[in-house]
Amino acid sequence: MKLEKEEVKRLAELARFELSEEEAAEFSHQLSEVLAYTGQVREAPVEGEKPAIHLLSLTNVLRDDEVKPSLPREEALANAPHREEGFFRVPKILEES
Known about the structure:
Elements: H1 5-14, H2 21-39, H3 73-77, E1 83-84, E2 87-88
Antiparallel strand pairs: 1-2
Helix pairs in contact: 1-2
């Protein structure tokens, strides 16, 4: 698959890159080579093969949820520099829009 210079310039524009004419031509050639190389994957014989989702079998190591006693609110807030109505009070970081 050949990637034209105009397509490369459009991709650069979308990515907010500035490319010279020479760079666009060079990237057009390089990306065309990459696409041609990766296109060979489509020609690989895969009949009868299982799809490989992961190369390694992965499992999540999770523990069962257990309800345990937690720190009382007053104790949790004891060292808070600022608190209000039973909550931590922190500086405002977002503007209202």
